[in-house]
Amino acid sequence: MSEPTQDNISALEEMRDEALKGGGIKRVEAQHRKGKLTARERIDLILDEGSFEEFDMLKKGRGGAPGKEKSYPGDGVVAGHGMIDGREVFIFSQDFTVIGGSLGEAHSQKISKVMDHAVRVGSPIIGLNDSGGARIQEGVDALAAYGEIFHRNVNASGVVPQISCIMGPCAGGAVYSPAMTDFTFMVENSSYMFVTGPNVVRTVIHQDISSGELGGAQVHTEKSGVAHFSFPNDILCLREVRKLINYLPSNNRQKAPFLDLSDPVDRTDPALDYLVPENPNMSYDMNILIRSLLDGAEFLEIQSNFAKNIICGFGRLGGQTIGLVANQPAVLAGVIDSNASGKAARFVRFCDAFNIPLICLVDVPGFMPGPEQEHGGIIRHGAKLLYAFVEATVPRITVIVRKAYGGAYLVMNSKHIHCDINYAWPSAEIAVLGARGASEVIYRKEIKKSQDPEAILNKRMDQYRETYINPFLAAKRGYIDDVIFPRDTRYRLIRTLQFLENKEVTNPDRKHGNIPL
């Protein structure tokens, strides 16, 4: 075999240098002026130093106007694999400085190769999106290229974690790839997502609106629920992706990495005995309980600005990653509405797909009433959460902290939908209705005849609480496995996780269920 000539080496070095320059100094400077990093700078920041191995650096596609075609090495995307804290991940980063990061056939082939390798070896996929969309010059080939990526998104779902970072424009059909991934990050003031842009909106419905107002980070993290996280800049965004990866397994055949934070298993917190107010109508912050329970008080909340009446996120107990779902009494009294249902259901299904045990902290007065919720399909949305919990085969533990009323009690991982272990605090109230609502129905005639209706109602409410809704009645029926002291909750959860570690479930043989989407 002949050795490479000096000419060949020089040609290779020249092509590599051209690829490393991206779209050139001026376009790189323009990217920096917008407060954005380049594609390669982002990869260097998110991966362990020196770990990146690139695929298809010299691959070229089509670009430019007809008759003025010009191709670029790399075709507007940097793709390959590297390490995050010593664990393999696959990554692609669109380069806005090269043909606007537009997606054509070669561009798509590079992304598809990375996704295929990720599924084949069982490692997470991270996509850094910064693209003007489909490359118009390639016509239907560009659309076909998107289809290839969508197909792989679906096939990778539930097999390896998929994470999308929107770090610039993402519009039209391009938005559907991030929408099918597990977690979406956005950068404030420099990223946006929408199916139809401001110009189309202006033409069709005659409304002037900016890209940020239509599909910016605030819109998608607070209103639509499309994105899970938003950060002020690229650096903070990518650092948080590294943090998320550390909670997750590499694929659906593994368990999440164990991390010992030297937090004693038997640690108690006497302050929890006084967390729940004596007045059942008073609120408190569920985050106090969550951070008290978790190792090192570390909690990574998912969609913290969307559907705030329910809390979802990752933490550790005894070094083991857990997925936590909790009602938030400090927001709308912790009721479940349509947005909360969808948010929690998707989180539960992710945890189940990737072998992450589920812990549910319950303080729920019911589902949100009113015509707006009913007309918006709260029955269908609430059924998503119910379906997700029933379908989950990972260890499932519930702690009823205070209120657990009506259908919402059942939906929040109750014993009756085959939760593994259900605990309750002494302050728990489990019933079809709260004390006031139930007393107004049961003792309606007596209250109506009384000269002092309020006094009679209060008396009957006290009787109802003692007779019907205290947790000891449910414990006698076997619906609660134990009534525990609040201060001991952490220890009881860790011990329960330990004995549930090898849980196995046999489900009916079927292609898949039909979740009420």
Question: Nutshell version of this structure?
Answer:
The chain is of the alpha/beta class. Helices cover 39% and strands 17% of the residues. The mean pLDDT is 92.
Task: Give an account of the 3D structure.
With 517 residues, the chain is of the alpha/beta class. The chain folds into three domains: 7-245, Alpha-Beta Complex (2-enoyl-CoA Hydratase, Chain A, domain 1), CATH 3.90.226; 270-428 and 470-499, 2-enoyl-CoA Hydratase, Chain A, domain 1, CATH 3.90.226; 433-469, no CATH class. The protein is built from 20 helices and 17 strands. The protein has helices at 6-20, 25-33, 39-46, 105-121, 140-156, 176-180, 198-205, 211-215, 217-222, 234-245, 286-293, 338-353, 371-375, 378-391, 406-411, 435-442, 444-449, 453-469, 471-477, 489-499; strands spanning 53-55, 77-84, 87-94, 125-129, 162-166, 169-171, 183-187, 192-194, 229-231, 299-302, 310-317, 320-327, 358-364, 396-405, 421-424, 429-431, 482-483. The strands form three sheets. Strands 10, 11, 12, 13, 14, 15, 16 and 17 form an eight-stranded mixed beta sheet that branches. Helix 12 runs parallel beside helix 14. It is elongated and about 100 Å long. The termini are far apart.
